[in-house]
Amino acid sequence: MAEVITISNQKGGTGKSTTTGAMAYILAEELGYKTLVIDFDPQGNETELLTGRDTEEFEDNTILNAMHDGDPRDYILAITDNLFLIPADEHLGVFPRYLCGNYYLEDENGNVLRDEYGTIQFSPEGHLILKNTLDKVKDYFDFVLIDTPPMLSDFHGNALAASDSCIIVYQTGKFGFKAVRKFLETIKASQEGSNPNLKLRGILPTMAHTQRSESKAYTHLGKEQYKDIMFDTVIKNTANISQLAIYGFDPKENKGLNKALEQYREVTTEVLRRIKNDIYFEVTEELIGRGE
């Protein structure tokens, strides 16, 4: 049965889609694991990254359709013999509205229940739509990687509920670092609600600029605050990695692919070691407070 991993942060521009795609490629093409990627972001960046095609080409063949059917098998796209994708397009953006229309809770008078912040409260089943969908195919894969949108949303609730573990990525700057704390809170909420077995595998600093003082400072601060939760690998911002968005993972089209993947090979090795040795970290109030 697959290890399902959400690779995420609610802040945009952290390199999470590139990290997800690169890790999936390495797991599948270099290490031989059957790997499924779920593009759970209406922007569809992961879909375009892995296929080299516009998201419009996948209309009616996306993760949204798979969830509506409750079965993803007709929507799995083979990229290679070992690498598979369930695409996304902009229509996935209606998913929160779908939840509101079908899974909201009511009080005894038929009024929609909201929390103290005015957010509509969903039934437990509303957080498990993606999980119940993916459960149909978990036995066919070694890994399932989920890419999520750059905002806290119902997408994250469903992704974390469907996952065995998660990896937080953060761009090495002030706002990227601050977002780690918020996402730790999201993980803790999921553990206390829909997924008590969710594990934090680690925190990965990305898009680091070795010559910029701010980037170096927030890389160091991450190591200082989160210690062994941080992966040893720091993904540095290089021209080869930036070109992945242009040339993708086809070695014939992307002559710099091998160089671009060097850092991701290192972090993939770390992830596999942590999974093999069941290394994970408790998300406590003390841990969350380290990011203040």
Automatic annotation (TrEMBL):
InterPro entries: AAA_dom, DNA_Partitioning_ATPase, P-loop_NTPase. This is ParA family protein. The keyword Membrane does not apply. Keywords: Plasmid. SUPFAM superfamilies: P-loop containing nucleoside triphosphate hydrolases. The keyword Lyase does not apply. It comes from Laceyella sacchari (Thermoactinomyces thalpophilus). Gene3D superfamilies: P-loop containing nucleotide triphosphate hydrolases (3.40.50.300). Residues 3-199 form the AAA domain.
